[in-house]
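We emphasize that the prediction below concerns an isolated chain of 339 residues; any contacts that depend on oligomerization or on bound cofactors are therefore not represented. The input was used exactly as deposited, without trimming of termini.
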Amino acid sequence: MTQAPTPTADTVRRLVRSLLKDDLNDDRARGGTDGASNGALKSGTADGADSPAGPEVRPVAEGEGHSTWWVGTRHVLRLAGDRESSVRRRREPRLRDLVRPHVPVAVPAGVAQGEWAPGLAYTLDTKVPGGTAEEHDVSAVGEADLAGLLTGLREVPVRQAEALGVPRVAPRSLEALRREADRAVERLRAADEFDPVRLQQLTSPAAVQLAAQPGTAVLVHRALTGEHLVVSADGRVRGVLDWTEAIVGDPAEDIASLALAVGSPAAVRAATLAGYGARPCLRGLWLARCDTVIRLAAHLEGRDRTSLTLLRTRLVRAWEAILLERVTELRDETDDTGL
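Result of the prediction step, given as a token string:
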């Protein structure tokens, strides 16, 4: 398989200068007065499309293999690194259009898409203004925004999402994940990173009882991490980025992602406001908790290159105690809590 080229600042600058210049020329030919292209034109001009040096570009994250770049102050360029991610990148603008009417937060608007290298897709989007959930705490009103997001995702027509190519994915086995986490916590105990006793709260029978229920599949973002939640300084959730990992599947996965991003109490409060009962909330909580110990153990063994600080922070967030687990006793019969 041919190795994908590594994008450089010069590569990105040449690409976006051409794109924004095309927007400028197209708009001038139409008189520069109408529609979405005029918005792209204004952004392009402000971002330096007419500058001889081209727009200022810089990678969003440090490290190797830059795939996401700031373009001036108003655009974001995302580059796929392989053919599989190119399929998801090409699908994303259509999926965002499907989602946008159902959610109360902003979804990025596309300016252009195409190939930045043979077979490798790109999308150029307008930037959603604001910080991230890693920079700003989510307020109580922000939790209501998250509740609206979860509610909206549940309302997106599943058949239409699948028609766009969004895959249907079976729910993960919480019991299998519990066993994997049980092995991971022994590695963490030896490194003095985690007390294995904490995982004993999730017994094998409880993991089985928290299995995903049939007929509950919805559109799942599956990557509601801190860097993908746009949060304003006052704690409101203003937007959600990167829809390339979306699936039709278990809604508890998004509750789990939120636990890593904003903490378990806030995630469960948002899910409860969205109408989810105790079972999916507790399932999401334990998916997050198992994932955090597995990922941290993998990092210590050199198998996960995620920042150690971030992994530790996510572990703390996921393992925050919530009132629901203190008052809910799992049992076989069904009651009005959904358990």
